[in-house]
Amino acid sequence: MNRRTFLAGAGASAVALTVGTSAASAQDDSFDGWLEDVPNYDGVVDYTGEDEVHVTVGADDGFTFAPAAIRVDPGTTVVWEWTGEGGGHDVVDEDGAFESEFVSDAGHEFEHTFDEEGVSLYGCTPHIPMGMKGAVVVGDAADEAPTADAPAQTAGGLQSVPVLPGTAAALGIIAGVTVAISRWTSAGRDEDRLSNR
Predict the structure, then answer these.
(1) Is 83 inside a domain boundary?
(2) What total of structural domains would you count in the chain?
(3) Which positions does UniProt annotate for Cu cation binding (predicted)?
(4) Is the peptide bond before 67 cis (omega within 30 degrees of 0)?
(5) Is 130 annotated in some ligand binding site?
(6) Could you give the CA distance from residue 83 to residue 69 in angstroms, rounded to a whole number?
(7) Residue 64 falls within a domain, yes or no?
(8) Pseudo-torsion of CA 14, 15, 16, 18, nearest 10°?
(9) Is residue 21 part of a domain?
(10) Partners of 147 in the β-ladder
């Protein structure tokens, strides 16, 4: 079992566990379900007209991007800024257009310039099953996406959006299941290695 297979299986388990835990999960999602289990997603934040936009990595409880979905103009640079919360994180585009290194240090930054119209779906590789995912809408793509008010920019990045009630408990269950699956697959690999000697 490789890392992507494991994450896909863990993600399916996480989605099954979170069904019905939050009213926000049931909202209309124009990203083919990518953001349906993201606890702080409440629409696309419009940053058109900005040359550079900042997204927090490890916001809220340490396992979200804030804001989760943004709209920018072609040519805009998005800068992801690490809070140091939630352990190590990365920023990986679903289609491979960009990928940061795996970092846990507060203040670390990763940037990518979006030159063409379209939608980029991304996530933190080990925390996708916990809903640590985001989207960047470039230009007029995905016009049907619900919109949200832009949070105020601060010197230290964006202000965090509070976690919805019940989300912390659901994330705790998901984290426990993910750890259990990881340990189970690790133990299986160790047994296979020992039996092949």
Answers:
(1) yes
(2) 1
(3) 89, 124, 127, 132
(4) yes
(5) no
(6) 18
(7) yes
(8) 90
(9) no
(10) 44
Distances in whole angstroms, Cα of residue 10 to Cα of each of 64, 90, 105, 110, 172:
17, 18, 26, 26, 14
Instruction: Please tell me the distance from the alpha carbon of residue 50 to that of residue 60, in angstroms, as a whole number.
Output: 24
Question: Which stretches within 19-164 are classed as H helix?
Answer: none
Measure the CA–CA gap between 32 and 14, rounded to whole angstroms. Answer: 17
Could you tell me the residue range of the domain that residue 103 belongs to?
Answer: 28-163
Residue 173 DSSP label:
H
Q: What distance in Å separates the CA atoms of residue 18 and residue 174, rounded to the nearest whole number?
A: 8
What is the pLDDT, as a whole number, of residue 16?
A: 41
124 is in an annotated binding site: yes
C-alpha dihedral over 29, 34, 39, 40, to 10 degrees?
-70
Please enumerate in sequence order all residues whose Cβ is within 8 A of that of 99, keeping only pairs 6 or more positions apart, or say none. 90, 91, 92, 93
Rg, Å, the chain Cα set = 17
Residue range 145-155, pLDDT digits in tens? 545 444 444 33
